[in-house]
Every structure is written in C-alpha cells, then in structure tokens.
C-alpha cells in the first residue's frame, strides 16, 4: 500500500490547515456549471471543521500566468462553495501577504476561508521558495485534496508539501486507492478502453498500458490511425497517417506483452460531421472514400461487451465515437451501460477519468454506477502513462520525514 499520511495521523484541533483543493471548475456567465470538484472536497473540509481545525482553502483557477485577472478570480466560486458547504466562508483578496494574514488571523476553530487564486503570483508555477514561504505563513499543516492538479510541480501542489507537515485529504486518498486498485494491484483480467481523437497525445499512455492489461480497446479517432496502419481504408475519417509506424510498434509491443489490442470490426460512417447526419454501418474493410467513421458499429460493441463480461477491472479514458453528436454516441453509451451494469452486479471494478470521459459517462447517465470516476484530466492521463505525479510524490516524501 502506498505510504502517505492522512487525516487519521494528525490532530487538527486549533490548527490552521492549508487545504489545497481544485476549484478549477467550469463556469459560464459567472456561474459554476459543474460543481463536482467542489463536492469532492466536502468530506475533508467537513472533517476538519468537525474536529475543530481552521480550514484555509488554496486553489488555482484558469491560467492567469502570474497576473491578477478579474475573470479568473476565485471570488466567483464563493457562492457555489457556500451553497455546497452550507456555511459562510471568508474570502481573502490575495493568497499571501497582509490580505491573507488578516483573514487567516481572524479565523476561529471550525471556520473556513478561501484565499485568492494562487496563479495570480508568478511564484506559484515557478514553485519559488519565497512564494512557498509566503503561503506557508497561513498554515500549521498542509493537506492536499487536489489530485487533478497533482501533475503540476507548483508551489501550492508540491513545494509547500516539503515546507509544512503534509497529509492526503480524503478525496486524494480515495483517488489514490481507486487508481492503485485499477493498475498497480488489480484483479485480472483488466481491460483498458482508450478513446479520443488523437494517437499523438496518447502514445505514452498506450505504451504503458500494453504492459499492464490483458485487453486494450482502442476507440475514437485514434482507432482509425491503427486501422489505416493495418492497410484498411478509412476514407475521410480523422486519422494521423504519419503515426502508422508508431501504431504498428504498439501492436508489436502488445503482442510481446500478451495484451490483446481490440480494434473496431465495423463502424458507423457518415459523410458529414454533424448530429443526425445520414449514416450507415460498414465493415472496417469497406469504408468508402468519402466516408467518415463517427462511431463503432454493433458487432464491435458486442465483441467488446463479451470480453468485458469476463474482466474483473476496467479503466476507461476517452469516448468511442463523436459522442457529442447524436446518434454517434451510441457505441460509447452502450459499452458504458454494460460496464455500469456489471459494476452494480458486483462483477467489475470500473474506473474512468479524463474530461471528455466524465462528460460522456454523465451523458450516458452511468457516472454514479461506476466504481470511481476521477475528475482529473491531465493528471489522470499522466498517471495512466505511469508517471510519478509531483504532487503525490511530495506527500509520500513528507510521510518519510
Ligand atoms: C485541470 O483542470 O485539469 C486542473 O485543474 C489542472 O489545470 P491546469 O491544466 O491549468 O494545470
Ligand atoms: Mg488541464
């Protein structure tokens, strides 16, 4: 089991707890459109509050690159945060200096404050020592609950964990435990589904997965690159022809590793990339010159589902087809629903993550049924690539001091 300290290892009563969360939530017209990341932080915040600690929330928001940008102020998140938490929070106009000190000094046990966007300071992304010191003035201990930002070696995600005694919050703990049970120490057979548009962004990930799973199902635009590399016609489909060699290398590597790569055997094709474009089913050997592959076909779905029925673990990143354009979401929906059913029946541990994936699972109304859905995008991908995430590594090191 991974070694990091958790909230079980510290008495937070009366302590100022600097809690790194990921409040980088989607917003439209000044309103939060998806509060999932805020909700995930709730158990840790409530636990610290109930134990009489003082919670000082730290987060980035957007990419203001060291400038103060009003449109990227965390003040906008306060109403949703108060609504989800069901309590008032104090907001500090700056995450360091006098503005932060004033709010933090005024906090009583069991109260919560939010400090302004850490990325308003250049020191955040530079992981600069003086900025880390300035942040650390507001806390006695550091707790990280922001797995989704843990791929960044920034001051508030990594540096500060070396400066203050550091602990994993409950969301971080749940995330790490779920991810470990999916790939580090899984029940076999394991299936990985990797979809999305481009192979180029997922080469490392595919290379890592073939050594770890029994079945690697490739979907989405990426599958076209593999089909083309095998000499199949892909018409006008999204395809990275220049990556044919890389795709073939992955196929060779997977064969050596005893991993079966599962590619589509049939496809739904259309001549326009739009919702409800006239479409039909073809075998992947007969995609027409003007066709675009927009989803997997029924035989592919049935094949994937029959393999999945024998798997114990599923890790999923990336949709099969153009899921944002109905009816080309059918392949993704069908497999997602089967995975959800097997999970509910207790036969499958299902873990999914990545921006599009979560949206696709929500659209298929199955996100609640999956064993674990990560809200992380880049961090989830880097973890699938087998990389060490700096924000996680710092927690491990802190536990060894
Ligand atoms: C995310 O939304 O993926 C995380 O909050 C990290 O944001 P970043 O990609 O701007 O570092
Ligand atoms: Mg990102």
From TrEMBL:
Q: Which EC numbers does the record give? A: 2.7.2.3
Q: Does the keyword GTP-binding apply?
A: no
- Taking the record's annotation, the residue ranges forming a coiled coil are none
Q: Which residues bind substrate?
A: 22-24, 37, 60-63, 119, 152
From the UniProt record, give the pathway where this protein acts: Carbohydrate degradation; glycolysis; pyruvate from D-glyceraldehyde 3-phosphate: step 2/5
Q: Where in the cell is it found?
A: Cytoplasm
Alphabetically sorted, this entry's keywords are: ATP-binding, Cytoplasm, Glycolysis, Kinase, Nucleotide-binding, Transferase
> What terms describe the molecular function in GO for this protein?
kinase activity
> What's the catalysed reaction?
(2R)-3-phosphoglycerate + ATP = (2R)-3-phospho-glyceroyl phosphate + ADP
Record-listed ATP binding positions: 202, 324, 354-357
| Top-level taxon of the source organism | Bacteria
Q: How does it assemble?
A: Monomer.
Q: Which family does it belong to?
A: Belongs to the phosphoglycerate kinase family.
Recorded hits in HAMAP family, A to Z, give: Phosphoglyc_kinase
According to UniProt, the name of this protein is: Phosphoglycerate kinase
Starting at the broadest rank, the lineage of the source organism is: Bacteria, Pseudomonadati, Pseudomonadota, Alphaproteobacteria, Hyphomicrobiales
